[in-house]
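A reminder from the course coordinator: this example appears on the midterm review sheet, so study it carefully.

Given structure:
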């Protein structure tokens, strides 16, 4: 039975986006696609324990979801043009013409249409392509689950009402559309890098690998776009460290304690090559964007053979450059970590405390404060900050790490 549950979970990780994309292409309705996909997975939960896991779970789920969608259309029976409905039900429409033939890439561009607000694009794509639950997306945005659910529902309705096409944009439209797609892929990657939910694996390589795959496709569409290259480099340099990030006991391993020999040298080399390309462009007068600077910061970290060899002055200089582009409190929080290494934890703590009003519901804010207070010898305040970070953190590996650090102080 546990093998079947694992197979269903694996199928959800591997096939959710494929099933949604296939149904969206055929029926042109995200609501139908999502409901039918959910019903297909529910059918798998009911039938696979008795019938066994099918040889091709993805094909089984897609076929079942198609039947569920057709059943729903028949039940509704509200369309005026019955002949059009019959063609939609029984015939696959012709494939949209695009530079790259990939259903999931088309689905991302559909969900990231400029007719939708930026945050709505990201949330919808995290749900439809990333397969994240509404609570997971709400945690990523630090908003209530009910508000996030309503946002996603309204987005699907708007796509249907506006007849937003299911396709990759034309070459001339790509530059205007790509920023929203990159934002989505970055958040999908981040959810895989450090899952927010307590009921999921602490790391979700299915999400990080899919985000990298789709970013590679976009780079093939736009090989000269610096931010696409920067995001791909950032993902590669981060993914390279995945196997060293969780201990055998299920505890998050911070960079200071990671076995750098376990890092993926191939991914690091590819990421560094992309960063060097963008540095050459910057030297030629092309100003780097947010993802390019974040990739450069990660290149500095992954260039050091030991944490003590990290060039923190270069890291801080890059953060100073990034703050001019993105003054978000989370960037300021990350910058404070570099400040602590150069100017000491007291200076960094003052910078972190200025972020309290905006980040009080963010677990990493309290975890950073806890570490700085620990380094300053303020154990009681550090324990209180660890308590708050543990309360807010959903990731099981991170919770285990924070709990151990707190208990060491006590």
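Designed residues:
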């Amino acid at each position: 039975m546990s093998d079947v549950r694992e197979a269903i979970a694996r199928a959800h990780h591997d096939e959710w986006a494929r099933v949604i994309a296939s149904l969206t292409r055929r029926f042109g309705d995200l609501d139908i696609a999502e409901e039918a996909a959910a019903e297909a997975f529910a059918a798998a939960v009911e039938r696979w324990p008795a019938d066994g896991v099918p040889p091709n779970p993805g094909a089984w789920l897609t076929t079942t979801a198609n039947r569920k969608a057709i059943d729903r259309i028949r039940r509704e029976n509200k369309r005026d043009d019955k002949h059009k409905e019959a063609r939609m039900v029984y015939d696959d429409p012709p494939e949209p013409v695009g530079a790259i033939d990939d259903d999931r890439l088309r689905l991302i561009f559909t969900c990231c249409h400029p007719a939708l607000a930026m945050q709505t694009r990201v949330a919808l794509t995290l749900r439809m392509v990333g397969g994240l639950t509404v609570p997971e997306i709400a945690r990523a945005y630090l908003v209530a689950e009910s508000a996030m659910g309503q946002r996603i529902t309204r987005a699907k309705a708007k796509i249907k009402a506006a007849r937003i096409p299911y396709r990759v944009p034309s070459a001339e439209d790509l530059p205007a559309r790509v920023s929203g797609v990159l934002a989505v892929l970055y958040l999908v990657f981040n959810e895989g890098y450090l899952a927010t939910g307590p009921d999921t694996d602490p790391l979700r390589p299915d999400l990080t690998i899919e985000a990298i795959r789709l970013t590679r496709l976009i780079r093939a569409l736009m090989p000269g776009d610096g931010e696409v290259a920067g995001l791909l480099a950032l993902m590669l340099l981060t993914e390279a460290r995945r196997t060293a990030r969780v201990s055998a006991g299920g505890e998050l391993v911070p960079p200071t304690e990671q076995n750098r020999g376990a890092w993926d040298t191939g991914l690091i080399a590819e990421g560094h090559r992309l960063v060097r390309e963008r540095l050459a462009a910057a030297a030629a007068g092309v100003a780097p964007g947010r993802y390019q600077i974040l990739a450069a910061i990660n290149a500095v970290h992954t260039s050091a053979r030991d944490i003590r060899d990290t060039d923190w002055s270069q890291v801080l200089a890059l953060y100073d450059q990034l703050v001019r582009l993105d003054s978000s409190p989370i960037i300021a929080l990350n910058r404070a970590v570099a400040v602590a290494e150069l100017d000491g934890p007291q200076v960094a703590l003052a910078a972190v405390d200025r972020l309290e009003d905006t980040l009080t519901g963010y677990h990493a804010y309290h975890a950073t404060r806890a570490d700085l207070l620990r380094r300053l010898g303020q154990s009681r305040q550090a324990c209180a900050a660890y308590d708050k970070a543990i309360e807010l953190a959903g990731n099981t590996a991170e919770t285990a790490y924070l709990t151990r650090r707190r208990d060491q102080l006590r």
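The longest helix spans residues 2-27. The chain has 20 helices and no strands.
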